[in-house]
Design goal:
The chain has one domain: 3-Layer(aba) Sandwich (Rossmann fold), CATH 3.40.50. 41% of the residues lie in helices and 20% in strands. Strands 1, 2, 3, 4, 5, 6 and 7 form a seven-stranded mixed β-sheet that branches. The model has no long low-confidence stretch (mean pLDDT 97). The chain binds flavin mononucleotide.
Length: 192
């Protein structure tokens, strides 16, 4: 039996490029796993082709900046537009995970990640958390200490080039973890 290539789609919105950097790191992490094809999918404009790529994915990693304590309006528009797929439970048993960026240290990022988990749960998806203990130094993975997903933080007066390397490595770790889980699930299905 030939092993199937598992597909991971990083579905994200970014207003000013900070979340794009997290998305790229997440995608690179997922793509580094053998047997996995990973791609970026921006949610600014939702085309039929993008919906088809999401429908075909084994795993989706949701990404958005935290705006006003939640995901961005563009991400919310995407989430609402999935309601037809929710009605048909078309994404049931796909793997899901998420990441977000903010300007403040907390910035209420947790609320954005919780919003993603509820979206995934409504679709019957399997949420993959971040299995990293909180970092104890600015340079350590998961320095912001989240468990639900990857968090990035960049002060409001700095551009995307100032994103923390530790946060980008944390995002890459999440990408690899999601890819590993999607592979496991895919192989388990093939062996049934
Ligand atoms: C409309 C708006 C609302 C924001 N709300 C928050 C917030 O609630 N908490 C926070 O820490 N930062 C907030 N920020 C800062 C962004 O989260 C931060 O700059 C982030 O890195 C932007 O990511 P992006 O470049 O991908 O859009 C807000 C920024 C904007 C433009």
């Amino acid at each position: 039996m030939t092993a199937k290539t598992v597909s991971v789609v990083v579905a994200f919105h970014s207003g000013y490029g900070h979340t794009t950097r997290m998305a790229e790191a997440t995608c690179d992490g997922a793509a580094s796993v053998d047997g996995v094809a990973a791609e970026l999918l921006t949610l600014d404009e939702l085309t039929e082709d993008k919906w088809a790529r999401l429908d075909a994915a084994d795993a989706m990693i949701f990404g958005s900046p935290t705006y006003m304590g939640s995901a961005s309006p563009q991400f919310h528009t995407f989430a609402h537009a999935t309601s037809g797929r929710w009605f048909a439970q078309a994404w049931k048993d796909k793997v899901a995970a998420g990441f977000t960026t903010s300007g403040a240290m907390s910035g209420d990022k947790l609320n954005t990640l919780q919003y993603f988990t509820i979206l995934a749960a409504q679709h019957g998806m399997h949420w993959v958390n971040l299995d990293l203990p909180p970092g104890t130094a600015e340079t350590e993975l998961n320095r912001l200490g989240g468990w639900l997903g990857a968090m990035g933080r960049c002060p409001g007066d700095q551009g995307p080039e100032a994103m923390s390397e530790a946060d980008l490595l944390t995002a890459a770790h999440l990408g690899r973890r999601v890819a590993d889980h999607a592979l496991l699930l895919s192989r388990a299905r093939l062996s049934i």
